[in-house]
Amino acid sequence: MSAVDEVTVVTGASSGIGRAIAEALLAQGRKVVNLDYVMPDWSHTQLVSYQADLTQEAPTRERAAEIAALHNVTALVNNAGATRPGTIDTATTASLDDVVGLHLRAPMLLTQAFLPTLRACGHGRIVNMSSRAALGKVDRIVYSATKAGMIGMTRTLAMELGRDGITVNAIGPGPIATELFRKSNPEGAPQTQRILDSIAVGRMGTAGDVARAAMFFLSRDNGFVTGQVLYVCGGTTLGTASL
Predict the structure, then answer these.
(1) 143 is annotated as an active-site residue
(2) Long-range contacts at 114-118 (CB < 8 A, ≥ 24 apart)
(3) Which DSSP symbol is given to 169?
(4) Cα distance between residue 84 and residue 184, in whole Å
(5) Which residues contact 90 (CB under 8 A, 6 or more apart)?
(6) Beta partners for 47?
(7) Under DSSP, is residue 230 helix (H, G, I), strand (E, B) or coil?
(8) 175: phi then psi, degrees, rounded to nearest 5
(9) CA 31 to CA 196: how far, in whole Å?
(10) CA distance 68 to 152
(11) Given 37, 50, 143, 231, which residue is catalytic?
C-alpha cells in the first residue's frame, strides 16, 4: 500500500472529542477509520466506521483484526472513554472492569493489531486520550486510576517503539464541553460551578481545543516528540484547583 492509502484509526469518533479529531484529519485529506460502540450520525467520503463494544475483549479483537486486514493503519488515536462516577464507598468492580477494558485493554489490543503497519511506514503515530483526572479527582476513582494507567502505557510504549519511528503521546483534557462532560456535570450543579470557577482561562474547553493538540502529535513532522502528556485543561492543572 502507498502513502495515499494510509489510515488513522480514531476510537469513539462518532461524537465529541473523537469526532472533532476525525474531522480535523479529514480536513487535511486524510483517511479515517472510526471505531465506536454506536455508528455516527455524520458521514464523509474518506470516513469508514465500524461498531464494537470496546469494553469487551472479543469484539475488540474481532474488529481490530478486521480493520488491520483491510486498512493500512499508520496512526491510532485511543480516544474512546467513559467516566463511571463513584467514590471508594460506591464504586463497583463492574465499573472498574468496564473502564479497564475501555481505557487500557482496548488500546493495548488495537496497538498490537496495527503494529505491523505502524512499524512498516517508519512514521507511526499513537495518541492516547488520558485526562486531567489522572492527577486525582473526587468521585472518579476508577476513571482517574485507568486514565493514569494510560499515561504509564504511553511512556512505556514510547520507549519500546521509538526505534521503529513510532511516537506515542498522551493528551489530558480538562473540562471540555462535550455530552460526556454534561452527563457527569449537570448544568447548574454546585460541582459544575466549582469546575467553571477553577478554570484559569475563564471558559470551558471545546472538542476543537483537544483536536488541535492531537493534530500536533499526529503530524509526521513531529517525530522528535514522544512519551509526553499535554494537558489541554485551561490551567486546571495549576496550583490546587478544586475539581
Answers:
(1) yes
(2) 114/9, 114/64, 114/67, 114/68, 114/73, 114/76, 116/68, 117/1, 117/68, 117/72, 117/73, 117/74, 118/73, 118/74, 118/75, 118/76, 118/161, 118/164, 118/166
(3) E
(4) 9
(5) none
(6) 32
(7) strand
(8) -70, 110
(9) 36
(10) 25
(11) 143
3-36 pLDDT, tens digit each: 569 999 999 999 999 999 999 999 999 999 999 9
Architecture of the CATH domain 3-232: 3-Layer(aba) Sandwich (3.40)
Residues 6 or more apart whose Cβ sits within 8 Å of residue 68: 113, 114, 116, 117
Residue among 37, 46, 2 at smallest CA distance from 16: 37
- Per-residue model confidence as pLDDT tens digits over 97-109: 999 999 999 999 9
Number of other CB atoms surrounding residue 225 within 10 Å:
14
Task: Give the start-to-end residue ranges of the domains of the chain.
Answer: 3-232
Strands (E), 25-166: 31-36, 47-51, 72-78, 125-129
Q: How far apart are CA 127 and CA 234, in angstroms?
A: 20
Report d(CA 90, CA 70) in Å as an integer. Answer: 43
Kind plus residue range of the DSSP H or E element containing 167: strand 167-173
Say if CB 68 and CB 62 are below 8 A apart.
no
Q: What is the CA radius of gyration of the chain?
A: 17
Cell of 61: 479483537
pTM of the full predicted structure?
0.94
Q: Which amino acid is at 44?
A: H
